[in-house]
Design brief:
heterodimer, A: 231 residues, alpha/beta, Rossmann fold, 9-stranded mixed β-sheet, 5 helices, B: 82 residues, alpha+beta, Mth169, Chain: A, 2 helices, 3 strands, 32% strand
Chain lengths: 231, 82
Amino acid sequence: MKFGVVVFPGSNCNEDCYWALKNDIGVDVRYIWHKSTEIDDLDAIVLPGGFSYGDYLRVGSIARFSPVMNSVIDFAKKGKLVIGICNGFQILLEAGLLPGAMLKNKHLSFICKYVSLKVENSSTPFTIETKDHNTLNIPIAHGEGNYYIDNNGLDELKKNNQIVFKYSNKDGKTDDNTNPNGSVENIAGICNKEKNVLGMMPHPERCCNANLGSVDGQSIFLSMKNFIKQN
Amino acid sequence: MYQAKIYVTLKESVLDPQGKTVKNALESLSFKDVASVRQGKYFVIKLDLDDEEGASKEIEEICRKLLVNTVIETYKFDIEKI
């Protein structure tokens, strides 16, 4: 089983993802330079966080046209697993692999802190190992994580159980007080209808080792690993 | 050659946190008449084309493909021969 971590110019969480997958999760992993289109050897792809192309124009809007992205779109269409974290989520939105768009945080500040996440759907390939967790303790670090989707789109997300994570308190209660950035209905992560593409603003790769303060991020990568094993 | 001036703004239905902050700043500077502020982007693009219809079509495509995210943004442009 092999994971691939895409590296765009301006990615800065690629090494954290690589390290966590290799050492904490125990899977083979390799980098994919954004100009490469050869990804057939892989079972899952990670679009990591960072500031691809300096966040110029709109977050993720330029990375979306990197050569690797056509291969990632084909890869996703085959039903293989793709996870976009933070800037990776923004790129998936721009690429149209997930619905909606990102706006600047409601209060405009860059937020870097631990948050609690309520798992709204624990039967996706990314969350099957989260069932024991009431909430996940995972850090966020972003200036543009204010998820927007219109009402029709929101209805679709709900109808298809595509809302995967919501910002909550430790008990899983979601309201305005637990919404760090103004996202529609506290949304922190969504998947596509087919459930094989996930985008999330929080950083699971930053909390896969007890030395870092939380291991809750492991449950997401372990879900992917076990899902791939079983399929 | 044609030149297009392109204006990209957030849709009216989408909250504009930057525009709102600018409005608050203007209020604190005693500009009490400011009813609303919407912030956007402005592009000037020159095209090596000699027909207005072709230039207009190309700008439309440039907007839709890259400059504008139509989920949250709307755009308009003026085009002139230079």
